[in-house]
Specification:
Layout: H1 2-5, E1 10-16, H2 20-36, E2 39-45, H3 51-62, E3 69-72, H4 82-88, H5 100-107, H6 118-129, E4 138-142, H7 149-158, E5 162-166, H8 173-178, E6 182-185, E7 203-206
Parallel strand pairs: 1-2, 1-3, 4-5, 4-6, 6-7
Helix pairs in contact: 6-7
Catalytic activity: (6R)-5,10-methylene-5,6,7,8-tetrahydrofolate + NADP(+) = (6R)-5,10-methenyltetrahydrofolate + NADPH
Pathway: One-carbon metabolism; tetrahydrofolate interconversion
GO molecular function, one term: methylenetetrahydrofolate dehydrogenase (NADP+) activity
């Protein structure tokens, strides 16, 4: 990568606690960095760390010229203020796109965020690569998280889709979903979307990861 852009990018990851799924994500990010020729930096802090300790780690990476992107692995322990921590990442290094300035730019017409959350951006990229027309289509996003659901809805609006968001307080979600030409499901609930909710020819992207028991296994 240095030959291509004249510098070796650096990606820093901060992991708090010992959640297995979070550790897996961090490990995969490190492998991806190695494959792409990106320097990988990592700080692991125990579950009982203070919010200030996390902020100190972010501040150090903000000031480090060899670090070009900072990822704070979510979720954070419940005793920490997640928004305070995400706000501490300088906007130029907010490669997750979670800083409120990046989120605000994503929501505004005529403004471009420096970074967009990768999972919803990947959903739009999938639609483009498979030749799915978005403009003028009815799209439904199931879930309204700051990480996937809301950014996905905003990106679909930028592509001139007519977008509805289905969430836990939505009445008759099946009726709304059944009208959709494009469905992006991002919920932590397995088997929520039934086949009867989907009209023939609709395009579906499921980004929810939910463990389910295998009834066929002994």
């Amino acid at each position: 990568m240095k030959d291509a852009i004249g510098v070796v990018p650096g990606l820093a990851v901060i992991l708090v606690g010992d959640k297995k799924d979070s550790a897996t994500y961090v490990r995969n990010k490190k492998k991806a960095c190695e494959s792409a020729g990106i320097n990988s930096f990592e700080v692991r802090l125990p579950e009982e760390s203070t919010e200030q300790e996390v902020l100190n780690a972010i501040s150090a990476f903000n000031d480090d010229a060899s670090v070009h992107g900072i990822l704070v692995q979510l979720p954070l322990p419940s005793h920490m203020n997640e928004q305070n921590i995400l706000n501490a990442v300088t906007i130029e290094k907010d490669v997750d796109g979670f800083h409120p300035l990046n989120s605000g730019r994503l929501a505004m017409r005529g403004r471009e965020p420096l970074f967009v959350p990768c999972t919803p951006k990947g959903c739009i990229e999938l639609l483009h690569r498979y030749g799915v027309e978005i403009k003028g289509k009815r799209a439904v996003v199931i879930g309204r998280s700051n990480i996937v659901g809301m950014p996905a809805a905003l990106l679909l609006q930028r592509e001139d889709a007519t977008v509805s968001v289905v969430h836990s307080r939505t009445k008759n979600p099946e009726e709304i979903t059944r009208q959709a030409d494009i469905i992006i499901s991002a919920v932590g609930q397995p088997n929520m979307v039934k086949g009867s909710w989907i009209k023939p020819g609709a395009v579906i992207i499921d980004v929810g990861i939910n463990p389910v028991e295998d009834e066929t296994s002994p």
